[in-house]
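Hi P.,

Sorry for the delay on this. The queue was packed all week, but I finally got your sequence through. Input first:
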Amino acid sequence: MSSLVPARWQGSAGLVAAAVVTAGVAGVLVAAQPRLGLLLVAGLAGLGVVRLLRLTLTELVLITMPLMFFPPIGFLLNVAVADFLMPLLVVLVWSRNVPATLSEGQRAVVRRYSGLSALLLFVTLVSGLLAALGVSDFNLLEASLDTMKLVVVLVYFVTLLVSFMALNERGRLRAARIWVWCAVAQSVGSLVGLVPSDGVRSLGYFQDPNLYAGYLLSSIALLFYVVARDRLIAWPVAILLLFGGVLSTGSRGALAAAAVLLAVSAVALISSRIGTLLMAGTSALVAVLLLVPDVLDRLALPGVERLLASSEIAGTDPRWRLWGRAWELWLDHPLLGVGIGQYTEYSAGLTPFRNWTEGQVAHNTFLSFAAEGGAIGLIAFCAILVGAVSRIAVAPHLTKTQQMALIIGVMVIVVMMMSLNLQNLRYVWAFLAFAIAAAASGEPSADSDQVSATARTHA
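Then the structure:
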């Protein structure tokens, strides 16, 4: 979409003059206020990169989406840098009536998923309202924050769905490549110790190793999608780096999701070069594990030791108690649940969090929806996931490799959701939006092993 591409600077003389003036102002600021001046320089450098790479606003959202932090109020709310750009994208997409430029079939898809999103939000509000009226110790702050977080990610979902649909196939491939290389960059940073960590587990720029691991795994699935359409020469190296980043997080849920990803990919993509590489790599890994004693203990990756130690005490993990309580709450409030944000009011004392005095989330996205939103909320949420998979599976213009890559991405997210609360993560909804948009766009594409010379030229 040309409206989302940064405007070109016109006139070389004016550009040079503006650069000289800006450099002078920046120099004065650096001398007077070093931090402010360096911040200005960094901002100008960022604008230069945007100009050089001709990044669109949608692409900037994808780049800044994995840069997350907790504001001063604590762990109740997480914020992404992309949140400051999303309002601009929302205004551009909806004020300029971008959905009207889509085909009738695409508009029908947008209406369907907009309706499901509205239903999910409506059920959430109703369950919260009923809980507020019927429970004396209703936590209004938690309910308000969780509702706001849900609104934010649903806005991401629907807006990015329209944005991805408005792109042609080349534009979607470019967006996917940007996503993948941003993930690879973070993974490399983890492996060399340049990104934040807690001393043992890499946190990425999510301030949470588990959320970071989920981002890397979904990026691997997206890499498979790119490779199915584009001859990306460095893709085997990118896969290894991303898996290395996953190991550095020490996330047990991610390890399970990675096993599913490898197993399904090796079987479903056996006829493609992706499946061949994964089969060969898996065979080599098994051989190393069998022939080299204590090989895992010798690995220097942060987080591996934690994985080995925690596997011995998996049976006593506090998650079992959290899941049990969520199940009990669902059975007690089967239709609409106990209200959004209220689960932590019932889970105090189940984990050693803050000396066993405060509750934690359910650490299972599906049980969380069931406990807080009841069967109706759970069905509304699952309908989005099931709808995404079913649409991908019947998309005639996608190759088998492309279909399986996107379905594997959804599967990885689902597996991670079984041990984590991921419903408020931007990348989860961005991936779903991309997958649905790719399946609904209806453009024919060449097979991964027979990519045309024209496609390679534009890659």
